[in-house]
Amino acid sequence: MSSKKLLLSVFILVALAQLYVPAKMIFDKEDTLETGIDYKFITAPIDPTDPFRGKYIILGYKDNVSVIDNEKDWVSGEIVYVFLKNDQNGFAKIKSVSKEKPTDNQDFLKAKLSAVSNDGTNKLTIYFPFDRYYMEESKASDAEEIYAKSLQDTTQLTYALVSIKNGDAVLKDVLIDGVSIKEIVKANQKK
Amino acid sequence: MLKDLQELVKAEVISQNTADKISDFYHKKGEDSTNRLFIIFGILGAILVGLGIIMIIAHNWDELSKTTKTFFALLPLVGGQLLCLFTLIKKQDSVAWRESSAAFLFFSVGASISLVSQIYNIPGDLSSYLLTWMLLCLPLIYVMNSSITSLLYIVGITFYASETGYWSQPQSEAYFYWLLLLAVLPHYYLLFKKKPESNFVVFHHWLVPLSIIISLGTVADKTGSLMYIAYFSLFGLLYLVGNSVIFAQQKTRNNGYKILGTLGSIILLLTLSFDWFWDALRKRDFQFNEVITSPEFFAAVVLSLLAGGLLLFQLKNKSIRDMKPVAPVFILFILAFIIGLSSSIAVVLINFFVFAIGILTIKDGAKKDHLGILNFGLLIITALVICRFFDADLSFVFKGILFVSVGVGFFAANSWMLKKRKTNE
Fold first, then answer.
1. B139, closest residue in chain A (CA to CA)
2. How many Å lie between the alpha carbon of B362 and the closest alpha carbon of chain A?
């Protein structure tokens, strides 16, 4: 094989690898969206001073704490497997947390520990890997305002709709009292 | 110019043959510089167009369906790949084509991953994103023989090391960085052999040492004070590399190794000329086993051995008197460090080192009749005096006398040198 042919074959391999990475991401997420199970996570107020917000809103979650037997067995930043259940109102709650990947057909979520208590309360805070909701650039700041207001208003219920399959999660939508935040922004901007 | 040549030929100052040679020379030189401009604008254009397209897609058009958005997210990537393929088949000999199509593809790879993340609301982890991006672009340096990709890649892996080692919580090791850096060195070496004077080589001379200086700190774990030895030895090593025969022909401003090595050594010495570091060092209780197995110790030993070896090699053909004052600083520092573990005299030693480097540099400048070197020596002394100014336990009178004498020193040294030059003329 001439050196030019060799170079071309190597380049084609590299190009395939470059295509493979985003393609794999798309297929995995599409698979989770199509065959995963939907959960509703109630959101919580977020730190309003966070300066690194562009065209997405940052979501915080209310029920992200789990109680375990001994806090000394856990390290902040480690990867854990979270089992979920639905409460009587249909919102997701943490059932339990494990260090081992489950082998049976249970639904679980792969996540990181964002904090571990060190005062004997044996609490784990879990970082849910779906804390960004991207919006169209022109709508993001409006959406953020609406989102922040809805969190202060106790009569409104804000939650994230998330598809979960085999540890992977995809954030589908953010809803305020059952209406997508995209629709609310659109309606507000038309006014 | 051409008119002048004709005149000179007519006046029989030069022959027609010489005149032809001269006009050929300038013709070729002109071609070279247009070629260079073409490369620069090609790369700039490719980067701007690439970034522009990415920003338009990043607007995240709500009206488009997810499939359409995904299609557009992958479009720059496929476009860049086709451009590179075209270059490889048709324009392989054109530097401008190779560099600009590779630069475009470099950014497209990063953009496609981040745009897909945006479409599916994936927060993602910055350091693994950077790592994936750089690994996917590393082969382009060699396949496309592209130096701009190499430079962007060095920036990218440095960012990756900093993100992993300094900025993310919890911090973790970025050992992978060293392998990634190693992977780019063959390109650097070949480039240096082929075109030692080219701009791309000069940029590498600056970026490679800078990247190492930034990333070395990510090694630090629990015995951070050993990092000072590692850094001194790194600066010593960089200085010696910059001082070696390979760089003898380079202009000083193109020699990043020498400049960064010198400045690094002196700034670090000035920082440690205060008492706080030595105070803490004396109170620190080192456990032998803990030290020996620490990554800082490993880094310090490896770098000191490398620098020591290179120093010995360079001294083999020269007498010790020819040694530049900055070269042995790392060895002296190791001595001072060992003394400083138990005695407070180390800080005096450091102050003496800075002072001695200043004086020797002034002497060197005077010998070489070089105003730049002379004044650099004076600047070192001034910096030392300013540092001592902040130490509260010196009286104002003493500080005042110090400042006046340094100021007088500046005037005296410069005017003496200028006078010497005049009498020589």
1. A14
2. 49
